[in-house]
Write a structure and sequence with these properties.
Blueprint: H1 3-16, E1 24-26, E2 34-40, E3 43-49, H2 57-69, E4 77-81, E5 86-90, H3 97-100, H4 104-122, H5 135-153, H6 160-179, E6 182-185, E7 194-196, E8 202-204, E9 211-214, H7 217-223, H8 232-248, H9 256-283, H10 294-307, H11 312-329
Antiparallel strand pairs: 1-2, 2-3, 3-5, 4-5, 6-9, 7-8
């Protein structure tokens, strides 16, 4: 048991007036946070070690408590010490949605449920407390592709034309994102951040980076998931299911062709960011496990380029200059 873990156990003991409990490790994520489980009067609870230099609990706690109060399935926050970076949460169990999706028949039910739950998030007010998904943030995220995957990992030297092509694309995607209806965005809504709860509800985690942004962002995060791929026809069926739910809830969406284009373009922005983050996790944080997900992630962007003539040149660049050396190196 390291020093932080020991400190965490003592904090729990003091808060609940019990002996410092034995902590068992729960699988972590791509962040600096660590998760442990302990029992209180026979009931399992989760404690989080979120070291303040790297992590900030304030956003997680504020969003969790507000969303929970509005009927969204987020874990109840039972205790928090912002200075230490410790939290005690309701235990959602271990059943992530991702493994359940290998059963194709069950997958459709889970996706429809997750999309319906998403509409409830998108309908939330209180948006003034969330940062805007503005041009600076959208551009900064896309630069992760250039800096970490293309630069750091592949060590590619871009020509001035290639650099300009990427910059022009980044600006176009940012503008497209800001022209969409702006709503509450979870910002990492995918199969490894959704959990099937014992009561069969779907629980949401990892929502601390929520923003006020494009309405199709979380939809594409789920349907063009970096960890599992579905045929385009299936994606569009689920997109239509979500659109019907969203319209019924009063969200004003564009006509179908524009909606699909919005979905595809914000998907490209997200997948540029994700591919860059996966490379950064490998090179900066010593977490190489995500490298295997880059071809799938980048593949989504290449598919979009093939669907829209104006992205033909970008698609060729991504395929020849990025995907080919990436696959060769693996």
């Amino acid at each position: 048991m390291d020093q932080r873990q020991q400190q965490l156990s003592h904090w729990i003991g003091e808060h609940f007036n019990i002996q410092p409990p034995q902590l068992t490790t729960v699988s972590g994520d791509a962040s600096f946070r660590r998760y442990f489980r302990f029992e209180l009067q026979g009931k399992p609870l989760i404690v989080v070690d979120a070291p303040p230099p790297q992590e900030d609990c304030h956003s997680f706690v504020a969003i969790a408590r507000y969303w929970h109060s509005q009927g969204i399935h987020t874990p109840e926050v039972l205790a928090v010490d912002f200075e230490l970076g410790f939290m005690c949460l309701e235990d959602f169990g271990d059943q992530l949605l991702r493994p359940l999706l290998d059963d194709k028949k069950a997958a459709s039910q889970y996706y429809q449920q997750a999309l319906t739950d998403l509409v409830a998030v998108q309908k939330l007010s209180n948006t003034s407390q969330l940062p805007r998904y503005d041009d600076a943030l959208l551009m900064r995220e896309q630069m992760l592709l250039k800096d970490w995957l293309i630069g750091e990992h592949l060590q590619l030297q871009l020509s001035s034309d290639e650099a300009q092509l990427l910059d022009d694309t980044f600006h176009l995607l940012s503008e497209s994102a800001q022209q969409q209806l702006q709503v509450t965005v979870h910002r990492d809504y995918h199969s490894r951040n959704l959990m099937l709860l014992p009561n069969q509800n779907i629980g949401m985690i990892d929502f601390q980076d929520a923003v006020f942004g494009p309405v199709t962002y979380d939809v594409v995060s789920l349907l063009k998931d970096c960890y599992i791929a579905w045929p385009r026809q299936q994606q569009l069926q689920w997109l239509e299911h979500w659109a019907q739910q969203a319209k019924s809830a009063g969200l004003e969406l564009p006509e179908q062709k524009q909606l699909i284009r919005d979905f595809d373009l914000i998907g490209m922005q997200r997948h540029f960011k994700a591919a860059g983050i996966f490379a950064r996790l490998n090179h900066r944080d010593g977490k190489p496990g995500y490298m295997a997900d880059i071809p799938r992630t980048l593949g989504y962007a290449i598919e979009v380029c093939q669907l829209y003539p104006e992205f033909e040149k970008l698609g060729e660049f991504l395929q020849q200059r990025v995907m080919k050396p990436l696959i060769s190196a693996q």
